[in-house]
Specification:
13 helices; binds zinc ion; alpha/beta; 356 residues; two-stranded parallel sheet
Length: 356
């Protein structure tokens, strides 16, 4: 209805000087209902293509460097600017998203987690869901901090519930405890650790050599740490190591400066002033959060907001309405700030597409 009335276009026109940075993770041609992609971290390729067609038709897709120039006052007004970014380093960004972006002439940035890409170490939520998807066990009994937990694995829905609950449990403990807990879960599920990465094609990281090919599709490589930790929970020295090692590994392969950074998780509290100082010290030019709103000229270039899109149930009309800034404008009017949920911590419940 709003589309018919042209309200989207009016709203977009009103907010045309405030760029939007979009965040995706992966794009897949596998549209089966695998539990490995139940949250829609990997967007279905036909849907991704329709969304990008909308961006190319009604907006001005620009590289991230342009919005940073704009924040620094080096660039004039940026009308209807939209940036496209991908987090983590999945291979299907090259193989599935790449052809779409190249054909539509949309530049983008891939933020790479180097342990994932260079050492093939799966991100822990993928490791967990892969183990749950492939196990033949009917139940899982584990003890965490002296409390016994029991999980049903007999049906698809039961596995999904178990994944959600175990994911929350893993998040509630420290990084070291999480690794031990995950190791225990995988052992009790009797799955082969070496098979978890190949359990679903979407889990596969891009090969380091393939990162060089990204230039051909207008994609820049930025850093997303080595091990994807919550940086604010690490010591200053550990934070510096995560920031500098990932940067130099990426530069060693791409041959150009890696000066764009995205905070893992990226919500307020996942990074702090100390983290920000370490990011600057490591030589980055800018850093991106997952705080969901449009950019404004007053933004700090080390805390740039981004809007994450993480489910496959969105329609192009909903995306268009949210991208136009209308829901954000209405929320501001009603004094109800938008959610600030990171993709990796989002629940399976459907939420606003792009709170602005
Ligand atoms: Zn990430």
């Amino acid at each position: 209805m709003t589309e018919i009335l042209g309200v989207n276009r009016i709203s977009a026109a009103l907010q045309r000087n405030r760029p939007v940075v979009l965040t995706f993770h992966g794009v897949t041609s596998d549209t089966s209902d695998t539990i490995c992609n139940d949250e829609g971290l990997h967007l279905y390729r036909p849907l991704f293509e329709r969304l990008m067609q909308h961006v190319a038709r009604y907006y001005n897709p620009v590289p991230l460097a342009r919005v940073v120039d704009w924040l620094e006052g080096k660039d004039g007004p940026l009308e209807r600017a939209v940036c496209v970014t991908f987090d983590d380093g999945f291979r299907n960004v090259l193989t599935e998203a790449g052809p779409v972006l190249k054909r539509l002439g949309i530049p983008s940035t891939l933020f790479v987690t180097t342990d994932f890409v260079f050492k093939k170490q799966m991100l822990w939520p993928d490791r967990l869901v892969s183990a749950i998807a492939t196990t033949r066990e009917a139940r899982l009994e584990i003890e965490v901090r002296d409390a016994n937990h029991s999980f049903d694995l007999t049906t698809r829905d039961a596995k999904l519930r178990t994944n959600t609950e175990l994911n929350a449990l893993c998040k509630s403990v420290s990084q070291e405890e999480r690794l031990v807990l995950l190791g225990g879960i995988i052992e009790r599920l009797h799955v082969d650790e070496s098979q978890l990465l190949s359990a679903w094609e979407g889990f596969r990281p891009i090969d380091p050599d393939e990162m060089r090919l990204l230039r051909n599709i207008g994609m820049t490589v930025g850093a997303h740490t080595c091990s994807h930790p919550i940086l604010a929970r690490l010591t200053a020295a550990e934070q510096s190591r995560e920031l500098t090692e990932s940067k130099s590994l990426i530069e060693g392969v791409t041959g150009y400066a890696c000066d764009q950074f995205a905070y893992p998780n990226g919500s307020p509290g996942d990074f702090d002033d100390g983290t920000r100082a370490r990011v600057i010290e490591a030589g980055y030019r800018c850093a991106f959060t997952t705080i969901k709103r449009r950019m404004s000229r007053a933004d700090d270039r080390f805390e740039i907001p981004r809007c994450t899109l993480t489910h496959n149930r969105v329609t192009v009309a909903e995306f268009a309405t949210e991208l136009s800034g209308l829901p954000g404008a209405l929320r501001a009017l009603l004094n109800r700030p938008g959610a600030r949920t990171d993709a990796r911590s989002a629940s399976t419940a459907r939420s606003a597409v792009l709170p602005t």
